[in-house]
Design a protein that fits this description.
seven-stranded mixed β-sheet; about 30% helix; binds iron/sulfur cluster; binds FE2/S2 (inorganic) cluster
Length: about 950
């Protein structure tokens, strides 16, 4: 194995269609118009020396190292800033150029410390490389570098250092921060010899606007910006390309290694989801894989009040199988079930649902997508015919109007947000529909044309009012609707949205958004060119989540914004493999590829391959399993990679359900909160320890590659397979690729997918089959998958969760950039320095009314429960609305969320809870108990560690 080296072409690719032919050093080369000479040379394999250019950012032309000669032109222009022209004859290596380049390098080296042997970038430094490339043998101006400014190292960022003594002021970092990340945190301060890179207003990196994406570190050609892990361990010696295991963007990374130790994760430029960019989580927050809290040995206990007992894998598997068989023999076949996870690979997820359907003989399998994007599946399948987003991420580059609804991409989907911001800086218009003033509403070089700060729970009313404007003002794309949609359903829908009660003026009364703002946003969406919706859990996690998804689809169809690049309906998936978990048949009523379990022909196909009859009745959803457990009819649960106690609503009810079961098996990395109720703990492995695939928000299937052996000794797929075998159901695979082969045989949209194809193409977007062997970047081109697009009447029904005198505020929730979901991984990394507790955002007016000051501890109470957290007073939230995150078990935000859920899918209504906020002196009772438990388990762990 060696390091995966990616070519740096020096300048970005030109997108021009017209091709131009020139000669470079006498060789003809043909490239798109607008390509730089530097890039054209690199395309034919000639590396022109360079320092300030790199292909992730536009050319700058400051170092003067890349000079070339052009026949018929005077001087020696820089090749990075000079575009090619037809017939041009370029020379990259002449005596004059050699002399000039040596002179430039002499100046650089004379201003640079010569401590190469002890420098962390030794062997990985472009300055060193260029000294070699130009044949530098002497420096006439000395080596002292004593005029070089050295204000001292900045080590404030937990993951990288800034050592200005090594800076060559090439400005690559500044441009990466602006152009790739879009944060504008850096500038070059001072002039001449006094020039230095400055975060913010000459602040430390940690105190500046920097969001630690790492783009500047990657762009830096020297050790000035360097990963602390490289400084600590040394330069890597081999790398493996794999996929981030955090969010639904699905960034590709090179895991750069020394032996089996990860040195750093470098975003992979050939990754089609991220195009070489990353965020702080994927780039830096992988240390949890080797955290001391990882449980590496299986454990069992008879009662949840007993201490855990470490056992062998054989004993743990045999015990699990025995228990599930006993429960089925005693309480019936349907008394047990399983939960799959969107954090796990497609192959692992497929096996868990197979274990339940074929091994347990029932359909009691559900997934954590139940609590996030199940309404997306339902809504898009109903209207378009496919339970998935319509576009690829590249599509945003063709959008003229972008609607962000109930999503906070800069925190939740940061790498896609950077691409979106780039398009917005280039002129696309933005509409934000969100109760909270998210960063995108106004940030450097981005400002929303409209922000609709609606009251939580009124998405459907707003979307229907937008449709009212579209129809009543004659903005419908009638030709599109007539050709692609059911016309009579459209007419019914059009009559419905035109009813006066759906007008912006009426909806303003329930949503709190001014009628003119709704009208303006609707007109812009319908008439502004290619318009695309991007939405998140702020749409789905409502009692009308599925209705809202269909309301978005209605708007897209009515305006013809579907079926080509730049438009569409795009769910921004929360977890890395939410799309995949749903695709793999994790819902109780659906087999892989979204085919209903009651379809005889589909079932027969699975039965023939699996050699066992399948139950035709849909099984229980997660909330139904918990209800049944409380009622006494559901007794055993296998939970892979999911902490339902923290992530599901109404924590008390979840706890009661778990406590009522006789065998709860938790298969995870850490002893999570759910494991407090478990009888068997099966250690899982991280993405670094497994082979498989994840499917991101754009339906892109990507390989996850093992970079180290599973620290617990077994792959997660092997564990599920062992349980099945121990229960008497034969499962036999030699490698996850064989599981994918089975998925492809059984699932028409995956028919053309294999590990070989993924390795060859890098990734594919499903459907990938005979009709689309290379996959499908944009769906519904030329027609909807279901035939005619279906308009659905979207009657607004207010949630039953109402504010009143006892609970007068509405709580809504979301994520923060540095943390991920329940924080099991990110809290075990240095990311904790940015967000070590969940806080409650409250408007100054509401705070004043309650006597709450900034930083006070407050009690957040709903009719279901209460928790205590610190208040942050801010106008980001409107009066009447409070907001918090859900990353810390010490807060357990879901203690207060209710049992209300989406009418179609049971997705919980996390985004609307009526609450009261009041000053308090200390934690809630349960929090004190939790703290005591945590202290106790820390004491036990410390004692065990000391004994070892
Ligand atoms: S880490 Fe990212 S946000 Fe921070 S300065 Fe570098 S490029 Fe900018
Ligand atoms: S920190 Fe690195 S990338 Fe930035 S100007 Fe200095 S040498 Fe160039
Ligand atoms: S944007 Fe998402 S997938 Fe990409 S690095 Fe960040 S967490 Fe990972
Ligand atoms: S690489 Fe062209 S001027 Fe620096």
């Amino acid at each position: 194995m060696s390091l995966v080296q990616e070519i740096d072409y020096g300048t970005p690719r030109s997108r021009a269609d017209k091709m131009v032919t020139l000669t470079i050093d006498g060789q003809p080369v043909t490239v798109p118009e607008g390509t730089s000479i530097m890039r054209a040379a690199m395309e034919m394999g000639t590396k022109i020396p360079k320092l300030c250019a790199t292909d992730m950012v536009e050319a700058f032309g400051s170092c003067r190292l890349c000079l070339v000669e052009i026949e018929g032109r005077p001087g020696t222009p820089s090749s990075c800033t000079t575009p090619v022209m037809a017939g041009m004859a370029v020379r990259t290596q002449t005596e004059r150029l050699k002399r000039l380049r040596k002179g430039v390098m002499e100046l650089y080296i004379s201003d640079h410390p010569l401590d190469c042997l002890t420098c962390s970038a030794n062997g990985d430094c472009e300055l060193q490389d260029m000294a070699g490339a130009v044949g530098l043998r002497d420096v006439r101006y000395g080596y002292a570098g004593d005029k070089h400014p050295d204000p001292g190292k900045d080590e404030s960022n937990p993951y990288f250092t800034y050592d200005p003594s090594k800076c060559i002021v090439c400005s690559r970092c500044v441009r990466a921060c602006e152009e790739v990340q879009g944060t504008f945190a850096l500038t070059i301060a001072g002039r001449g010899f006094g020039s230095v890179v400055s975060p913010g207003l000459q602040e430390a990196f940690f105190d500046s606007e920097c969001v630690s994406c790492g783009a500047c570190v990657q762009a830096c050609p020297t050790a000035t910006l360097n990963e602390k892990s490289v400084i600590d361990i040394g330069t890597p010696e081999h790398s493996v390309v794999t996929t981030c295991a955090y969010c639904g963007v699905g960034c590709s990374f090179k895991a750069e290694m020394r032996g089996d130790e990860v040195v750093r994760m470098v975003p992979y430029k050939n990754g089609k989801a991220n195009r070489g960019h990353s965020c702080v989580k994927g780039r830096f927050a992988w240390g949890y894989a080797t955290h001391k809290d990882r449980v590496l040995k299986p454990m069992i206990r008879a009662k949840i009040s007993d201490p855990w007992r470490e056992v062998t894998w054989d004993e743990a598997i045999a015990h699990t199988a025995r228990e599930f068989k006993r429960l089925q023999a005693t309480y019936g076949k349907r008394a047990v079930g399983g939960i799959t996870s969107s954090r796990c690979t497609n192959e692992e997820t497929f096996l868990v649902q197979k274990l339940v359907r074929a091994g347990f003989g029932n359909n009691n399998v559900d997934t954590c997508a139940r609590v996030c994007h199940s309404p997306t599946g339902y809504g898009l399948k109903t209207t378009f015919g496919t339970s998935a987003g319509t576009q690829d991420f590249d599509s945003v580059e063709h959008s003229d109007v972008i609607v962000v609804l109930g999503a906070n991409p800069t925190d939740g989907h940061p790498v896609f947000a950077s691409r979106m911001k780039k398009r917005l800086r280039a002129g696309a218009k933005l509409i934000v529909i969100d109760p909270r003033r998210i960063d995108l509403v106004r940030m450097p070089h981005v400002e929303a044309s409209y922000h609709l700060p609606l009251l939580p729970g009124t998405n459907v009313a707003i979307l229907t009012a937008m449709a009212h404007v579209v129809v009543s003002e004659g903005l419908v794309n009638e030709a599109f609707v007539r050709e692609h949609c059911d016309w009579s359903e459209f007419e019914d829908w059009a009559a419905f949205v035109c009813e006066p009660r759906n007008s912006p003026e009426e909806v303003a009364k329930v949503s709190g958004v001014a009628a003119e703002t709704i009208r303006g946003a609707a007109r812009l969406y319908a008439t502004g060119g290619n318009a695309a919706f991007y939405y998140g859990l702020g749409v789905t996690e409502h009692s009308q989540g599925s209705t809202a998804v269909m309301a978005i689809a209605n708007l897209a169809m009515a305006t013809g914004n579907i079926g080509r690049p730049g438009v569409g309906v795009n769910p921004l998936r929360g977890q890395n493999n939410v799309q995949g978990a749903c695709d793999m048949g994790s819902f109780p009523h659906e087999l892989s590829g979204y085919r209903h379990i009651s379809e005889d022909a589909t079932r027969a196909m699975f039965e023939a391959l699996w050699g066992t009859p399948l139950d035709s009745e849909p099984g229980l959803r997660i909330p139904n399993m918990l209800d049944a457990a409380v009622d006494g009819s559901f007794k055993g649960l296998y939970i892979q990679g999911e902490d339902i106690l923290q992530s599901d609503p109404n924590t008390k009810h979840v706890a009661a359900g778990l406590a009522a079961m006789e065998c709860v098996v938790v298969h995870d990395l850490f002893l999570n909160e759910t494991a407090n109720y478990a009888h068997v703990f099966l250690p899982g492995s991280t993405f670094l320890e497994k082979d498989g695939t994840f499917t991101n928000a754009e339906r892109r299937i990507q390989l996850v590659r093992k970079v180290m052996a599973p620290r617990n000794g077994l792959g997660d797929w092997e564990i599920t397979m062992a349980i099945a075998q121990a229960m008497g159901f034969d499962m036999a695979y030699g490698h996850p690729s064989e599981i994918m082969d089975e998925i492809a045989r059984l699932t028409p949209t995956f028919a053309g997918v294999s590990f070989e194809k993924l390795a060859e193409l890098g990734s594919v977007q499903w459907p990938c089959n005979e009709k689309a062997p290379q996959g499908t970047p944009v769906m519904h081109m030329g027609g909807f998958v279901r035939g005619k697009g279906k308009f659905v009447i979207t009657e607004y029904v207010a949630t039953d969760e109402r504010v009143g005198p006892r609970f007068p505020l509405l709580l809504t929730t979301g994520r923060i950039l540095s943390q991920y979901n329940v924080g099991a991984q990110t809290r075990r990394t240095a990311n904790a320095v940015w967000h070590d507790e969940d806080v409650l955002e409250i408007h100054p007016h509401d705070a004043e009314q309650r006597g709450v000051r900034d930083g006070d501890l407050v009690k957040l109470a709903s009719r279901v429960g209460d928790t205590t957290l610190r208040a942050v007073i801010t106008e980001r939230v409107a009066p009447g609305v409070v907001y918090t995150t859900f990353h810390h078990p010490g807060t357990q935000t879901n203690v207060v969320t209710t049992e209300y859920s989406d009418w179609a899918t049971n997705c919980p209504e996390y985004k609307v809870t009526a609450v009261q906020v009041s000053p308090t002196n200390g934690p809630s009772d349960w929090q004190e108990e939790y703290e005591e438990l945590t202290r106790k388990s820390r004491r036990i762990a410390a004692t065990v560690e000391a004994a070892e």
